[in-house]
């Protein structure tokens, strides 16, 4: 049996079906809380196609407090099978494995235990625990209740194309700038036909053959993400139903049974990582495809595995009113897409801004605002506007950044597969330093300056909405539940007029989203009425704080 930690692999024992050293006393493995415990077993049988031949393989695990959980295992090539879990309690854990092939003593009725210790890491996912969604909340939080603001970067091809050193460079840069989620794709898809080793996750459609070598390579990329304190936002089934490359996207062409089997395999393999499951990528999940995706989601997540779950819809589609009631659907994810016109901006400020109100409380996050440098037509001002509008349109939950050179992992002389390319797009390493990349990081840091989880949209404080005359002038407001904090986003240099809550006196200052700085605000008061003119050349946030 091998115990795999994020910093390496410590082989404890390879004796089949036992945790005791041959001829010696039992040795109990140790693993820190919120890390990964890995049980490695050797099957007695070699199966033709383990995905279909072994109907069930799992461990019934008992925590120190007596809580029992079933954790699915997975095939890792040849006769190798594994079970991974994330312990959430300090103390002694025990387990017993079960296999549908009950005559296989290497996999069936294997019992053992391990010791879970305190975690001395300084990273939030280990000090505060996994990221969860509590019922009734509009924000995510760690297991200990600490709020978690989703600040993601899009690297769809990062886990597939990057070298380990490139990936390390990227993750360090993102962590240094406050990015705590990395969105990436887990298999071949329309944007990447094979990984850097020339391997694919599986072959076939009506009946798949898995490639463990592909996933072993991907394991290391996932380990690196968590090693930097980041959650992996893992797209399981890329699903765009139109455009070039659909034949490469499993969410589009796999039958329901195979799509479910592949997704459940990913859950078994990566369910002990700090992960958010993005079931479908860029998909159409309504209309004639609604029943398909409802069925897939319910089957994949029916056992309530560790990790958040959501969908990444194609641009400009709001699926919250359909999936919001689903118990497996933790985040109302959407994609505002890559335009700067009226349709895109009003999708955020009208469709999404109204849509969240009719759903049960849950975080609402724009998983794909416009990419910086896409078509060399969208730049930092557009990215900033889209991200601030998105955060202010609903109770804040987080935001995702994307650059047209990072998501496809473009190197010098390369072009993205099955996507439009315009010369001049920065390579992945240069795109990390684009202005918008830092400015979206400033947005995350700015929100964390306040009790952002208590903020709610408060458009009713506006005396007039400049966006009614021109959509790009739309002013967005957030107000804390106790009315002590009001944030007003002005997308251009403009004036704003507010009627403030009664019985409050406020101090005012401006936040500069470009320079990440504050300055005093000169505002005009007439009783409860406030008027302010932004002094900044571009967008600004007026911060009003109630005097004690």
Describe the protein's topology.
Elements lengths: L1 E4 L2 E4 L18 E3 L4 E6 L7 H4 L3 E6 L5 E5 L1 E2 L4 E6 L5 E9 L11 E7 L6 H4 L3 E2 L7 E3 L4 E2 L1 E5 L3 H4 L2 H13 L4 E5 L16 E2 L5 E2 L1 H16 L3 E8 L11 H4 L2 H15 L4 E9 L6 H11 L7 E6 L6 H4 L8 E3 L7 H14 L8 E3 L13 H14 L4 E4 L26 H4 L3 H14 L6 E3 L18 E5 L4 E6 L4 E5 L6 E7 L4 E4 L2 E4 L2 E5 L6 E7 L2
Parallel strand pairs: 3-10, 14-15, 14-23, 15-18, 18-19, 19-20, 21-22
Antiparallel strand pairs: 1-2, 4-8, 5-6, 5-9, 7-8, 9-10, 11-12, 12-13, 16-17, 24-25, 25-26, 26-32, 27-31, 28-29, 28-32, 30-31
Helix pairs in contact: 4-5, 7-8, 10-11, 11-13
How would you portray this structure in words?
By secondary structure, this protein is an alpha+beta fold. The protein has 13 helices and 32 strands. The protein has a 6-stranded parallel β-sheet. A 6-stranded antiparallel β-sheet has the order 24-25-26-32-28-29, with helices on one face. Strands 3-10-9-5-6 form a 5-stranded mixed β-sheet, with no helix packed on it. It is globular, with a radius of gyration of 25 Å. Mean pLDDT is 94; it is low at 1-25.
- Order of strands side by side in the largest beta sheet? 20-19-18-15-14-23
Tertiary shape: globular
Oligomerization state: single chain
Radius of gyration of CA atoms, rounded to a whole number: 25 Å
Q: Let me know the CATH homologous superfamily of the largest domain.
A: Glycosidases
Can you give the mean pLDDT? 94
CATH class of the largest domain: Alpha Beta
- Beta-strand content bin: 25-35%
- What is the CATH topology of the largest domain? TIM Barrel
